[in-house]
Amino acid sequence: MNRRIRMICRHPEVVPGVGNTIRTNKKWGTAILGLLILIVTALGAAGCGGPSGYGKGVTNLSVASPSAIPAAYLIGAGDELEVLYYIDPDVDLPEYRVDSEDTLRVDFYYYPVMSKTLSVRPDGYITLPPIGDVKARNKKPTDLAREISELYTPILAKPVVTVEVIAFNTKIEELKRAIYNQERGMSRLAVVRPDGVISLPYIGDVKAAGLTTHQLQEQLHRRYAHILYNLSTTVVVLNARSNRIYVLGEVERPDFYELLGPTTLTQLLATAGGLTREAKTDQVIIVRRGKNGQPDAHIVYMNQIIGEASLLDPMLQQYDVIYVPRSAMARAALTADFLWRIVPLRFTVDYNLN
Question: Where is the Soluble ligand binding domain (predicted)?
Fold first, then answer.
């Protein structure tokens, strides 16, 4: 059977031709012919090329994960945290300094009638007649006694004074009352606000988003050390709302997904509905945060993982971005479809079969 394909361009400037020859004006004909050659070349390359990544496995990605929420997990908005408080008896405390709401006993050795018990006011002062107000907060008891003695020197012959702290650490007791509950003991539940901040007793707002639990613990220790030297905290992530990964490209349901436990790449792709027909099945790209927060791209060769060594299936991490590229065949088909849309409607192709 003699097959003849004749392409006729019914364009005002086209010179009709016969057979398999396309004759147009120089500008339009050259453009169309070049684009058609490009499509054929792309289709040929897609059909003949083999999977370039087969047999190479996974590139620079770990294949194990110790827990559902790893130590490197970065706290984010919406996360539910529990802050556990405890008093560390092994901390070497500096010499005690008087604080607000402490109860002091001021004794005048030679003038016991002037001795009295005083409470440090919230502003940090005590009142001693006839001297008046004396700053007591943040002073060592021995230093405060020496200062009081000097103040009374013009009045008393031998103002030998001692200061004894008979009630202290009232802030610890207040903190216990603020955070204690029968179910969880000394702890505080906190949800990270959209601005990345949590609120805690005595220290107020604390930036939590973008930190690991260890980094947040260190920050809380520094903040509380100005108030209570031997107070320690432990931060636990109860509900990780920011343990997300993002899937783009040729999957059925591209979206972000929450990691509820250790998850491999193939498990995630299955959750996303699997690959589309246009997907390049041999290579998948994972973009991951590097040590300095810079993005690092890793190529995963899926053929070996699925066909030979599933143990190489990489574990995914928080904020990973998975991109499934389009195959060369699909790209060529998409290009052809695009070109067909931009070619004038009067451009037709006639098939004559004899």
Answer: 245-294
Q: What is the domain-level CATH number for residue 314?
A: 3.10.560.10
Task: Please state the φ and ψ torsions of residue 176, each to the nearest 5 degrees.
Answer: -60, -45
Examine residue 206 and state whether it is found in any structural domain, yes or no: yes
What count of residues does the chain have?
354
CATH for 148 = 3.30.1950.10
- Residues 137 and 184 reside in one and the same domain: no
How far is it, in rounded angstroms, from Cα 206 to Cα 241? Answer: 19
User: Across the chain, where does the E strand assignment appear?
Assistant: 3-6, 80-87, 103-108, 116-119, 125-128, 132-135, 161-167, 180-181, 185-191, 197-200, 204-207, 231-239, 244-249, 255-258, 283-289, 295-301, 321-324, 350-353
The token pair at 298 is 């890793």
| Helix or strand (DSSP H, E) at 305 | helix 302-307
pLDDT tens figures, 131-181: 999 999 989 999 999 999 999 999 998 899 999 999 877 777 777 777 777
Radius of gyration of the chain (CA): 38
Contact 293, 318 (CB under 8 A): no
> Rounded to an integer, what distance in angstroms lies between the CA atom of residue 285 and that of residue 167?
64
Burial 41-79 (b: 16+ CB within 10 A, else e): ebbeeeeeeeeebeeebbeebeeebeeebeeebbbbeeb
22-37 in b/e burial notation, b at 16+ Cβ within 10 A? eebeeeebeebeebee
Distance in angstroms (rounded) separating the CA atoms of residues 85 and 68: 24
DSSP output for 312-329: G-PBP-TT-EEEEPBPHH
Tens of pLDDT along 174-216? 777 777 776 777 888 999 999 999 999 888 999 999 999 999 9
Q: Which residue has the tokens 């997300």?
A: 244
Amino acid at 32: I
pTM for the structure as a whole: 0.57
